[in-house]
User: Which sequence fits this backbone?
């Protein structure tokens, strides 16, 4: 059986500050760095060896991937970075404190924006300081592909081509795969892998730590799912 290991990035500085992050390129907190290191140690302890790794183009996921590979003694493994694994774009909510957003728009509205499968948050203006339209890392994309706001449905539509073109073929080829990404890009792929309904995925949370492991048979049927945990002495 082949293994797919999902690692959500360690706690970020904006996670710590309770801010909507999305495509803003914020760094790991001190705790988040340790979580990424510990993820690598758990992978090593579990004896999981990767053939290829994928991550987003945001530093919190890239650093998590690098730490996880380094501390599992696999820093040599090829890493492919793609915008398609970026976090969900929170649009005009980006950079806002979640409590302040609730006070401004109401708890119910913010809950809908955060948890609804197909309701979009307010769009981010193109001249916003966090807009991706002028960001050099997306310069090769058609401007129409760069989002101004996303929900989980749109995030899945964006991530799915990469799953079908890169991740799934690697697994079918017998390769063990590491994916260092984000809470919502991982949730989107988990929805697809497990064929969850729009309602079921709303109850799925992906923690910053520990890594989530999926094991597949030769036909890419999901056989086993578990979070890594330290071996008992």
Assistant:
């Amino acid at each position: 059986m082949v293994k797919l290991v999902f690692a959500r990035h360690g706690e970020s500085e904006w996670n710590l500050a309770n801010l909507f992050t999305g495509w803003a390129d914020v760094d790991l907190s001190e705790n988040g760095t340790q979580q990424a290191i510990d993820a690598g140690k758990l992978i090593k302890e579990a004896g999981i060896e990767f053939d290829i790794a994928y991550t987003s183009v945001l530093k919190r996921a890239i650093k998590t991937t690098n730490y996880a590979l380094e501390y599992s003694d696999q820093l040599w493994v090829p890493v492919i970075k793609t915008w398609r694994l970026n976090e969900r774009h929170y649009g005009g909510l980006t950079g806002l404190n979640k409590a302040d957003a609730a006070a401004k728009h109401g708890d119910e509205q913010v809950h809908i924006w955060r948890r609804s499968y197909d309701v979009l948050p307010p769009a981010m203006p193109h001249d916003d300081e966090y807009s991706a339209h002028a960001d050099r890392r997306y310069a090769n994309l058609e401007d129409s592909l760069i989002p101004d706001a996303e929900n989980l449905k749109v995030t899945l539509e964006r991530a799915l081509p990469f799953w079908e073109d890169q991740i799934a073929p690697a697994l079918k080829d017998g390769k063990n795969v590491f994916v260092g990404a984000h809470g919502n890009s991982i949730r989107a792929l988990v929805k697809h892998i497990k064929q969850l309904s729009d309602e079921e995925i709303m109850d799925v949370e992906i923690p910053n730590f520990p890594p989530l492991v999926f094991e597949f048979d030769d036909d890419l049927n999901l056989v086993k799912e578990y979070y890594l945990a330290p071996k008992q002495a």
